């Protein structure tokens, strides 16, 4: 009868979401522990949550916010004040942030050159557009954006090529071992063996 009571208690424990640890099962204390310490609030909680955000999300957002502030500054140099300048900055932050998140999300599926072109194009178009907000001509703004986009392409290509361990597809274009020509192999066999 005692064994029957133990089975009944174990069945009741399983039906109520608890685990009978006497029979070798392990309880998932992380998900159902009622005495688990609550997450810290305030700055400590924000810092803890920030550690869990991947760089492919945090860096485009931070860059977009900085770009929005730069857009507000640039529109002020043209004489736009107050609300319209803030709207320009908000639009620039949202559009560049979304495009940055898209590029960062899909960069692992791109080859090195395509990824560098994507970053260069995004940077060049953004800077060229902001440069035109200061009252510059379209031709001058396009040339400025193209130049800085080309610089960003070269820098991104350099960074991606020198950090091959971080490449999504492994080492970029691994070189095959150098094969000796037939004449070189015959010449190697004709050399005398060194004697000591």
SSE pattern: HHHHHHHH
If you average the pLDDT, what whole number results? Answer: 75
Helix content: 55-70%
Which word captures the global form? Answer: elongated
Low-confidence runs:
23-34
Q: What's the assembly state of these chains?
A: single chain
* Tally of separate helices: 8
- Gyration radius from CA atoms, angstroms: 31 Å
Strand share of the residues?
under 5%
How many strands? 0
Largest sheet: none
Please state the structural category.
mainly alpha
- The N- to C-terminal Cα distance equals 90 Å
Structural write-up:
The protein has 196 residues and is an all-alpha fold. The protein has a domain at 53-166. 66% of the residues lie in helices and 0% in strands. It contains 8 helices and no strands. Helix 5 (83-106) packs antiparallel against helix 6 and helix 6 runs antiparallel to helix 7. The longest helix is centred in the last third of the chain and has 25 residues, at 138-162.
């Amino acid at each position: 009868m005692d064994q029957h009571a133990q089975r009944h208690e174990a069945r009741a424990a399983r039906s109520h979401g608890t685990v009978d640890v006497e029979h070798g099962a392990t309880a998932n204390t992380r998900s159902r522990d009622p005495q688990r310490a609550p997450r810290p609030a305030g700055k400590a909680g924000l810092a803890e949550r920030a550690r869990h955000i991947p760089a492919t999300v945090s860096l485009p957002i931070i860059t977009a916010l900085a770009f929005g502030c730069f857009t507000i500054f640039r529109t002020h140099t043209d004489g736009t004040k107050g609300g319209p300048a803030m709207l320009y900055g908000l639009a620039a932050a949202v559009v560049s942030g979304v495009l940055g998140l898209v590029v960062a999300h899909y960069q692992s599926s791109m080859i090195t050159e395509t990824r560098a072109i994507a970053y260069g194009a995004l940077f060049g178009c953004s800077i060229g557009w902001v440069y035109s907000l200061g009252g510059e001509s379209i031709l001058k703004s396009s040339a400025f954006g193209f130049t800085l986009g080309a610089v960003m392409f070269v820098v991104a290509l350099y960074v991606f090529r020198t950090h091959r361990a971080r490449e999504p597809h492994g080492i970029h274009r691994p070189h095959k071992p150098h094969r000796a020509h037939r004449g070189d192999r015959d010449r190697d066999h004709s050399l005398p063996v060194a004697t000591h």
